[in-house]
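Q: Hi! First time asking for a complex rather than a single chain. Here are the components, and I think there are three in total. Is that enough to go on?
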Amino acid sequence: MVVDTARLPRAAKPRTRRFLTRLALYALLVALCALFLLPLMWALSTALKVPGEVFLYPPRWIPHHLRWQNFSDAWSATLPFQIYFKNSIILTVLPVIGQTLSCSLVAYGFARFRFPGRDFLFMVMIATLLIPPQVTLVPQFIMFQHLGWIDSFKPLIVPSYFATSAFSVFLLRQFFMTIPRELDEAAMIDGCGYFRFFVRILLPLSKPALVAVALIGFFTSWNDFLGPLIYLDSPHKFPLALGLNFFLTTYGGGVQHMALLMAAALITMLLPLALFIFGQRYFVQGITMTGLKG
Amino acid sequence: MATLSESTRALTRREAVRRFHARHREALFGFLFISPWIVGFLVFTAGPMIASLLLSFTDWSILGTAHWVGMRNYTHLVHDSLFWTAMRVTFIFSAISVPLDVLASLLLALLLSQRFRGRALFRAFFYLPELVPAVATSILWIWAYNTHFGIFNYLLSLFGLPQVAWLENSSWVIPSFIILSLWTSGGSRMIIFLAGLQTVPRELLEAAHLDGAGVWARFRYVTFPMISPILLFNLILTTIGAFQVFTSPYVMTGGGPGNASLFYVLYLYRNAFQYSLMGYASALAWVLFLVLLIFTILQFRMMRKWVYYEGEVR
Amino acid sequence: MIHRKHLVFAGALASVVAASVFAVVATAAQNQNVTITYATPAGGGQPEIKLYDTLIKQFEKLHPNITVKQDIVPATSDPQFWQKLQVKAAANQYPDLTYVHYSWFPQAVQYNYLSPLDSGSTNANVNKNAFFNTTIQQFTNKGHLYALPRETSTIALYYNASMFVRAHLKTPNQYAAAGKWTWNTYRQVAQKLTNAKAHQWGAIAPVDVPYGLFSTIYSFGGSILNADNTKSAFDTAPDIAALSFLRSIIANKSAVLPAQNAKLNLFANGKIGMYISGYWDIALTGGSIKTFKWDVAPLPRGKMNLTRVASGGYGIPAKAAHPQEALEFLRFLETRQSVQYLAKLGLIIPALKTVAESPTFLQPHGVPAHRSVFIAALKHGKLDPEIPQWSQMVDAITSGTDPIWTGKQTPAQAGKSIASQVNSILKG
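A: Yes, that's all I need. Here is the structure of the assembled complex.
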C-alpha cells in the first residue's frame, strides 16, 4: 500500500484540485476498508447462516435466510453468556483502572526525574517484555499458589495495580517526554509540587495517550485467554474469551458450531467497539502551545 | 576554576548546597513515583524471571525433579537443527512484517488524523480486527486461507488469478502470517500513532505552511520529529511482538508445512509442555531474550540520532 | 485428702469423657463433607458438562458426604489440557479424578502422576473383561492399569452417497460386502469422482497425523515403531508403500490435503467424495448435512485388516488429596447406567462392551446407516506405540511427511529422514 503524502489535502489549493484529492482519498480509504473488513464481513455472513450453509462452495455471501436467531442462541441457549460477560467486565475494568493509574505514575518518574540507576531500571523494565510468558508461567503459578490466589480473579487483577504493563509505562513515558520542560519549571516557580503538577497539568495534557493506554489495556484483557485458562478452574468464573472455546471442542470446530462461534465472537466485540468509538474522539488534533502558559 | 572573590565563592557554595538538596529531593521523588513498579517487579516478575533463568541450567520436566546440568541445554541448542529453523522462520517473518506493520499503520494514522467527515467510522473499521477474539480470528483465517474452498482463493479465481496454497505451500506460509499480523495488530499501532500525532502542535504546522513548506517538508521537519518517540516505541514493541508470535501458527498450521512456519515461541511451547523439556525451553527463552535485548538496545542507540524529545531530561 | 475411690471415680470420668470425645470426633470425621475435583477438558462442550452435572447430582445423593466439583479446562487441544495439569502439579495441586488422553498418558506414567487402579489402595476392582481389550491395553503400563477407559474410537470412511450415485459407482459398503473394497479400488473410485470443473474431489488424503496416516500405514501392514519401541519403522517397505500410495492420490489430483481440523467442514459442503475420520464426526455433523446423503464404511482393506484405535479414560493422580472418594465417584461413573447416559452425547463409543454393543447404541437413528462399522472395527484395532516422547515423534512425522505431499521429497527419502529423526528422539 503506497500513499502519496503529497495528496494529503491542505488549505489554499485550487478548489477542483482539492475536490479531486478529497475524492481520491475517500476512494482509497473505502477500498482499503473494504479489503480490510472482508474477513469480518465473512464472519458476519457466517453468523447468519444455517449450519449446512457455512462451508458451501462457491461461498455464499448473503445467506438465503438470515438466521438472526444464531445471535440469541449464542447468547442464551448454549452458554450462560451473561455470567461470562459479567466476569469479562470485572476482569477488564479493574485491571484497566489499575494500569492507567500505576503506569502513569511510574512513567512520570522515569520521564521527569533524575535519580541514580534510572536508565538501568528502565532497561530492566523493558527487559521484562523480552521473555516469552510460556516459561515464566510455571514459576508465576507456583508463586500465586503459595499466595492462595488460584481459581480467583486476583492473579489477573492485582498485578496491574503495580505497573506490571511495561508496554503502558513505556508508551506513557514516551508521551511525557514530548511535553516541554518549561511547563514543569513554570509550575515549580509557581509553587506547584511534583504530584500536583502531575495531576493538574501533565495528565490532562496527556489525554490521548491515557485513552490509548486504557483502550489497549481494555482490549488486551477482554480477549485474554491464557491467563484465565491457567488460573481459573470454576466455569462460573470464566470470562467470554474462555466461554468462546466451548464452541470449539477438542474434537474440532464442528460444522454445527461455526455459525454460533462467529455469532458469539461478534457479540463479544460489541462492547469494546462501542468503547473504541467513544474513546477515539480524544484523538483530536493538537495541544496548543498558547493554552499552556499560566 | 579561575580565581574568585570570597563572596562569589560563598555564593557558589550555597548554590551548590541548594542544588544538592534539590537533586536529592528530585531523586527521592523519582524513586517514590516508580515505587509501585519496583514493588510489583520484585513481587510478581523478578522471582519468576530468575527462576526461569535458573531452570535453563537444569533438566527440569515440570513433573520431575530438577537436576543441575550446567551449560548442557545451551550447547544442545547450538546443535539443534529445529532451533536454527525456528530462528530463521521468526527472523524472516520479523524482518518483513515489522517495517511493513509500522509503516502501514503510520500512513493509516496520518490519513485518519486529517479532518474529514466519517473519520471516526473509518478509524473504527480499521480497528475492528483488533477486537476479534484470537480463537475466532484463527478459525476465520484458516477457512479464508483454505486452498480449495477459502474466500481468498475464490476471489482470486473470480479475477482469473492463479490459486495460492496459502497455508500448504512452504513459500507462501510466512507471507500468509505477515498478512494476518497486519490485519490483527495494525489497528492498535494505528491508534498509538494517532495519539502521538496529537502531540504535534497545530501552530507549528500552520507556521511551517505559511513559510511555504510543502506537505512532505511539513512531515519531515515538524510531524516526524514530534512523533519520533512514538515511532521508536512502535518499532521496538512491534519487533518484540513479531519475535514472540505463537497463537496463530499453533492453531493454524502447527508449524507446517514441513516446519516452514515453526515460529520460535511455538517450538519453545512444545518443548515446555509437550516434550517435557522445560529446562531446555527455558534455555530457548533466554536465548530469545538475548537476541531481543541486542535488537532493542540497537534500536534505542540508532534512534538516539533521530528521536527528538521536547521534554527530555538527561 | 484424696482417697482411692476418688481416683477411681476420676479415672472413670476421664475415660467416659475421652470416649465421648473420640466418638464425636470419629462420627464427625465420617460425616465430614469432602469435596473432590474432577478435571476435564469437556471436549463435548456444554452438553457434556450438563450430562456430568446430572450424573454428579445422582452420585451426591448416594454419597451425601461427597461433593463433586467439575474443573473445566476449555482447552483448544488435548496437549493444552495436559499443560494445565502439569502447571498445577508443579504447584503441588492435583485434581482428585481426571480425564486421561492417550497422547500424554505415557508421560503421566513416566512421572508417576497416576495411581494404579488395579492394585493397592486405589484398586477399582473392575472386571477388565467388561471393557474392549484394546482400551485396557491402552492404559496398561508396566503391568498395571493406570486409567479406566471411558471411550474409544476406531477409524472409518465417511462418504458422500449421493455423489457415488450420480457417478454410477458402487458405494464403498457395496464393494466391502463383495470383498472388493481395497486401496486400489479406493484410488480408482477417487479418480472417477474427481471433477475439476465442478470443483469436486474424490477424497481428502488421509495424511493427517495420527488419525489418517497411521490408519493407512497399519492397513498396509506397516507400523510406526518396531516391536519393542526402540526404532522407527518409517524406512521399512510397508511404510514406504503406504506413503507412496498416498502420494499417488495427491499427485493425480484426486485428493486434497486435510486442512487443520477442517475435514468435516470440507466434506459438509458436498464437494468431497470420501474422507477418513473417527466416530466423533457423526455427532459433529449435528444433522446439518441436508444437501446430500452420506454414510460410513470400513476402511479399504490393505495387506492387513487393521484399523487404528485409541481411547480416553479416567485416572486418579497419585498425589490426589481424596483418592478414596475419587474412587467412589469413578466406580459410579463406570456403572452401566452412567456409561449409557454419557453415550447420549453421541461423540464417543463407550469402552464398556455391554453398552457399546447394546441395541440402543447400535440402533441407527437415521444417519448414518452403517455406524456399526466403527464397533466392528474394534475387533481389528491396533494401538499406536505408547512412548513418553509421543508428541515429539508426531511432530517429526508431520513435518517429515509434508515434503512428500508437496512433491519435494520421494517417500523413500522422507521415510529415511523421518526414521533417523525419530530414532534420535527415542535415544533421548
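A: Chain A has a mean pLDDT of 84. Let me know if you'd like any chain examined more closely.
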